[in-house]
Amino acid sequence: MSHEQVESITQELKFAYETGQMVSAPPSARPGFDLNAAYEVEARLKSDRESEGHRSVGRKVGYANKAMWRVLKLETLVWGHMYDDTVHFADANSATLSVARPRSLKIEPEIVFGVKHAMGKGLDAVGALASAEWLALGFEIIDCPYPDWKFQPSDFVASYGLHAALVIGEKRVVQADQIPALIDELAKFKVRMKKSGEFVEEGAGKNSLKSPALCLAELGAAIARRFPSDPLSAGEIVSSGTLTAGHLTTKGDEWTAEVEGIFLPSLRLQLI
What we know:
- This protein is α+β, with helices and mostly antiparallel strands.
- The protein has 7 helices and 14 strands.
């Protein structure tokens, strides 16, 4: 795909993001639009956001499910950047959030990490946690510019990773002597999603590449392979993949995520 075609797609997706309009057909419908082109679009969108005064603060994961890799012919997960105006910290594990120009929002509970050391290839779950300063429960809000939520991984990457917002609960500092216990907890804990107090779905840590710690390690390795000069670095925030299905949501909804099997408080979010 030519640079001119990539630039045209970049401007199309930027316009859709800034206006809340839909894109009539995803970029993958066009010949030659693969993950290489998608990451080029994502890099251009990041550059544009930074030139407008926004700062990248981390990355969000997509397709943290190896069964989907086989179906979609992926070799690893994918990712997009998050920004200082889309990442928020809850006050006492309760937050309200207004999403500008929503189209079709979904909410996903995730484990969020704060990175303290640059991460590369070859890390296991222990190494990933040793590179993390903290972890927390979070809600990611995603929004899709494509009709009927139908898209390919390349479309996901090119459209800001579908990222609309991330709300982060209370941080738990990762202590070295706690890592062995955390490895076990992250693989086994459960999360319950409730909407207005009514049970919606139960998920688990294993739904994120068998453990959010393994997902963090995979992300570090995947970024290092594709962009060795831009590794996952100290200070970045990582949203490590959804623990349940994404659930459609809209203004007025109130969501609670409750966890069992890991020392993290419940998190509440109301969309306004």
